[in-house]
Amino acid sequence: MRLSELLALGDLDPSIGNIEIAGLSADSRVVSEGFAFFAIPGHAGDGLAFVGDAKARGAAVVIAERAAECALPLIVVPDVRAAVARAAARFYPRQPETIVAVTGTSGKTSVVAFLRQIWAAMGHEAASLGTVGVVDSKGAHYGALTTPGPVELHKTLNELAAGGVTHLAMEASSLGVDQRRLDGVRLAAAGFTNFSRDHLDHHRDMEDYFAAKMRLFDTLLQPGQTAVIDADSDVATRVAAVCNTRGLSVFGVGAKGEAIVLKDARPHALATSLDISHAGKNYKIELPLAGAFQTSNALVAAGLAIASGDDPARVFAALDHLKGAPGRLELVGARNGAPVFVDYAHKPDALEKVIATLRPLTKGRLIVVFGCGGDRDKGKRALMGEIAVRAADVAIVTDDNPRSEDPALIRAAIIDGAKGAGPAQIIEIADRGEAISQAVAGLCAGDALVVAGKGHETGQIVGNRILPFSDHEAVTKALQEHSS
Ligand SMILES: CC(=O)N[C@H]1[C@@H](OP(=O)(O)OP(=O)(O)OC[C@H]2O[C@@H](n3ccc(=O)[nH]c3=O)[C@H](O)[C@@H]2O)O[C@H](CO)[C@@H](O)[C@@H]1O[C@H](C)C(=O)N[C@@H](C)C(=O)N[C@H](CCC(=O)O)C(=O)O
Ligand SMILES: Nc1ncnc2c1ncn2[C@@H]1O[C@H](COP(=O)(O)OP(=O)(O)OP(=O)(O)O)[C@@H](O)[C@H]1O
Ligand SMILES: N[C@H](CCC[C@H](N)C(=O)O)C(=O)O
Ligand SMILES: [Mg+2]
């Protein structure tokens, strides 16, 4: 592809515009012969500092936001992150016909997994993309980011479409939206789950975080398209106002929803019976998932399936067969009849919700094993400690990806927040495997254990090393060791 086509800039000097481009990247380390290198002014450094590296690897041209002394032809654009996203969409032209993006602090991975399952039940060739990777009818492939960078994203979209996928549900993280990773994606609709504290290590404050999410609705969705909103979220009215201003069609779901109305939800064991209405008709659903939050997620997914053209009665029937996303309130086993769950709650609201879900199902003690990630929002540590001792009976504080930080200090910050904040016993066990083993060993009939924070993850990040570790495997091992 010629550079003028890649950038959609017809007025480039032909000596530059006619350069044949073999690929594109914003990371000099993956540049090859004939590539266009997009120099992003980032958080840690400026891509312009890596032009020499890009040239040595064969880059043909640099695209940046400012003019600079440069060993290669340089083109200045106003927003280089948007430019690389749009260029990637041209270089990898195919996309599944129906792409839906889901944002919100919690529930994105669950909603895209549910939507993929609903679409598959409708007979569509469906896929999902997000924190647990790309999942389609052929299997799952893990990736590093929830919303991949634009070059990887468009390569993936191209491959999915070429492989016959017509329907894709993808997660839109606030960072992904903010950093223009989705700017070249042809969206059909978008979903919003909820809003609470997260990523305050990146966003200046909660308003900045909210605005980042709203860019999906006020900029990326086009007027006339549909926004499916969990109407029971604290910020649903604000989100709907943003959507109305943009001329979107608002589809509210939940007890306060107007498009799918949740009339009654009766939890029993690990399932929930729902009475809902939509377009003047009533439906009964046996959702095979526990937790009010999973009901909300399932209704957002159903709304997105209906908004993208599927038959409501068939969509609601599909909810009877939903499976949870891996590591989201996943029942791994039991000891002395006490269930053991693995969950991905690594932020305050999620921890609160998962404990609140298990509390009514637990006659004995509710035990939670958790930690907080290093190099992430420090403010959430004390909050999560406080929630655990207020809402659970035993809080076992352990490590969760300490990264470059001293894990003992992370645990101390959690315990500082926990002390005196509630009745639960606090136990500190640094080694996560040992914490899980001791928690399992102590389970009595009537108890329940939730190991929170790592969900589907398969490693413990200590310094720059990723040590193999899975909560699921650690629980299974502990259940075997402490059987009888
Ligand atoms: C903190 C953050 O969001 N970083 C993202 C951001 O990097 P940055 O702006 O800080 O870039 P930088 O490190 O300053 O470097 C500037 C530029 O120089 C380039 N570079 C750098 C070194 C080099 O040798 N050569 C080179 O060309 C970099 O590729 C970059 O383009 O822009 C990059 C290009 O798009 C992203 O790859 C990078 O994601 C990093 C890998 C990351 O870990 N991001 C995480 C925090 C993230 O995005 N998480 C979200 C949310 C998760 C969730 O809620 O589920 C996600 O969507 O996964
Ligand atoms: N609708 C919801 N409201 C509150 N908490 C939720 C909701 N859905 C899921 N959770 C909690 O958040 C955890 C993460 O859920 P999920 O992976 O679906 O969300 P996510 O938005 O993709 O999160 P992340 O940004 O961390 O990838 C779950 O394990 C559960 O504890
Ligand atoms: N996408 C989130 C996941 C956090 C998971 C938790 N296990 C941790 O490491 O803090 C992040 O990178 O902030
Ligand atoms: Mg996710």
TrEMBL record:
UniProt: meso-2,6-diaminopimelate binding residues: R376, D400, N401, P402, R403, G453, E457
Pfam family name, one: Mur_ligase_M
Keyword terms, alphabetized: ATP-binding, Cell cycle, Cell division, Cell shape, Cell wall biogenesis/degradation, Cytoplasm, Ligase, Magnesium, Nucleotide-binding, Peptidoglycan synthesis
MF annotations from Gene Ontology: ligase activity
Subcellular location: Cytoplasm
Domain Mur ligase central span(s) in chain numbering: 102-305
Reaction(s) the record says it catalyses: UDP-N-acetyl-alpha-D-muramoyl-L-alanyl-D-glutamate + meso-2,6-diaminopimelate + ATP = UDP-N-acetyl-alpha-D-muramoyl-L-alanyl-gamma-D-glutamyl-meso-2,6-diaminopimelate + ADP + phosphate + H(+)
Essential cofactor(s): Mg(2+)
InterPro entries linked to this entry: Mur-like_cat_sf (IPR036565), Mur_ligase_C (IPR004101), Mur_ligase_C_dom_sf (IPR036615), Mur_ligase_cen (IPR013221), Mur_ligase_N (IPR000713), MurE/MurF_N (IPR035911), UDP-N-AcMur-Glu-dNH2Pim_ligase (IPR005761)
Domain named Mur ligase N-terminal catalytic: residues: 20-92
Post-translational modification as stated in the protein's UniProt record: Carboxylation is probably crucial for Mg(2+) binding and, consequently, for the gamma-phosphate positioning of ATP.
Protein residues bound to UDP-N-acetyl-alpha-D-muramoyl-L-alanyl-D-glutamate: S28, T146, T147, S173, Q179, R181
Residues reported to bind ATP: G104, T105, S106, G107, K108, T109, S110
Domain Mur ligase C-terminal residues, every copy: 327-455
Known EC number: 6.3.2.13
UniProt short sequence motif Meso-diaminopimelate recognition motif, positions renumbered to this chain: 400-403
N6-carboxylysine carried by residues: K213
Function description: Catalyzes the addition of meso-diaminopimelic acid to the nucleotide precursor UDP-N-acetylmuramoyl-L-alanyl-D-glutamate (UMAG) in the biosynthesis of bacterial cell-wall peptidoglycan.
Protein name: UDP-N-acetylmuramoyl-L-alanyl-D-glutamate--2,6-diaminopimelate ligase
Species per Swiss-Prot/TrEMBL record: Methylocystis iwaonis
Gene that encodes the chain: murE
